[in-house]
Amino acid sequence: MPRVATGRRARKRSNTRAKDSKLSKELICATALKLIDRKGLTQFSLRDVARSLGVYPRAVYWYVANRNELLSEVVGFALREVYLPPSNQSWQEWLRNLFHHYRDVVRLHPNIAPLIGASMLSPGALVPETIERILTVLSEAGFPDDQLADVYNVVIAAQVGFVTLELATLPSDDTETWSKDQKTRIGTIDVLRYPMLGRHLPALANRAFILRWTNGTEVPLDSSFGKFVDVIIRGLEQLLPANRGKR
Prior knowledge:
By secondary structure, the protein is an all-alpha fold. It folds into 3 domains: 7-78, Homeodomain-like (Arc Repressor Mutant, subunit A); 84-169 and 231-247; 171-214, no CATH class. It has 13 helices and no strands. It has helices spanning 7-20, 25-39, 46-53, 57-60, 67-78, 91-108, 113-119, 128-141, 148-166, 175-187, 195-204, 222-239, 241-244.
C-alpha cells in the first residue's frame, strides 16, 4: 500500500498546494520583472522567481517551460499597455505618441531592452489587438493594402530599434572600469587623422551611439529620439499615394 503522509509532512505538502493554487502567469511575470529590474538579466533565474513567491520551482514550470519562455512572457507583460486606443488624432500624432509611450514604458524596465527583439518571435508577442490597431491607423491614413505589410514593419522596427540601442546593456563584469576605459579610449581618438570626428567629438561624446560610456538610463538621448521620430513620420508621409507626385 502507498504510504500516507502524516503530521508535519502532510501539513507541509498541504501548504505547498495552497501556495501553488494562488499562482498565475501574470503573478509570475510581475515577480520576474521586479527581479530583472533589480538584479539584471545575468543574475536572474527561474529559481529566484520561485523563491520570491514562496513556492517550489516545479510550481512555476506549470506556467512556463523554461527560463527563455519566461523571459519572453515577461517582455509581453511589461509592454502590455504600450499600444494606444483609437482617438481623434491624426495618424501622425497617434504614431508619435506610440513611439514616445513605448520608450517611456521600456525606460521603466531598461533591463528588458536586449530581450525585446528576440521576444518578437515568441507567442507572448502575438497580441492581435495591437496589430489590429496599428493596421487600422495605417489603413485610415491612406496606405494601400499592398503596402500595409511593409509600412507596418517600418513602424515596428522604428518603435523597437532606437530604444533598444539607447538602452543597450553595458558589460556586466566591472561596469565601472569598463566605462572609465571606454571614456579614455574615446578621449584619445586621433583628431588629426579623423578631423571631422575630432571637430564634433565634444558634442558627440557620451551622447551618440558607439561613442558612449553610459547608456540611456543615465544619459537619455531625448533630442535625438525626437528627430528620429520626425524622420520616420515624414518618411511615411512621402510613401502615401497622395504625396508621391509632390517629390
